[in-house]
Design brief:
mainly alpha
Length: about 140
């Protein structure tokens, strides 16, 4: 799980740096929060969840409801989207089982955006900012 989180964070940081670099080439300077928000809206390459974590959480949500299990708005959006993708695959792809559909979604489908807060996004990008700026100018 830690490796998946590290991969998600690294992808998110790369997306931010791409925006910084593009803006620098175009002579544009944006406020940091605007760059972070733009990167959050980009589609990541993966859900960055393990099968076991996703399965456990989706089954628990099915039994107890999302409101009682997931506090954060972004995490709630992540599991709502993941659950909808699994349900869609189960209904359309030769009636796959939950396990098969979840595996398919985690391996071949992408979430619509990075599901994390602006505070988390800021924490992730902070170590990269000075490096990114030095590399662009250097």
């Amino acid at each position: 799980m830690k490796n998946l989180t590290k991969n998600r964070n690294a992808e998110y940081a790369r997306r931010c740096i791409e925006i910084f670099e593009r803006d620098y080439r175009n002579g544009c300077v944006r406020p940091l929060d605007e760059v972070l928000t733009m990167a959050l809206a980009m589609q990541p390459h993966s859900h960055y969840l393990s099968y076991d974590t996703a399965s456990r959480k989706l089954h628990a949500i099915e039994r107890h409801g999302i409101d009682s299990l997931v506090a954060g708005e972004n995490t709630r959006a992540l599991y709502t989207e993941l659950g909808a993708q699994v349900a869609d695959v189960m209904s359309k792809r030769r009636k796959l089982s939950f396990d098969q559909a979840l595996s398919f979604v985690l391996n071949f489908c992408r979430p619509s955006r990075f599901h994390m807060s602006l505070d988390t996004a800021r924490r992730i990008i902070t170590p990269y900012i000075s490096y990114s700026i030095c590399r662009i100018r250097g």
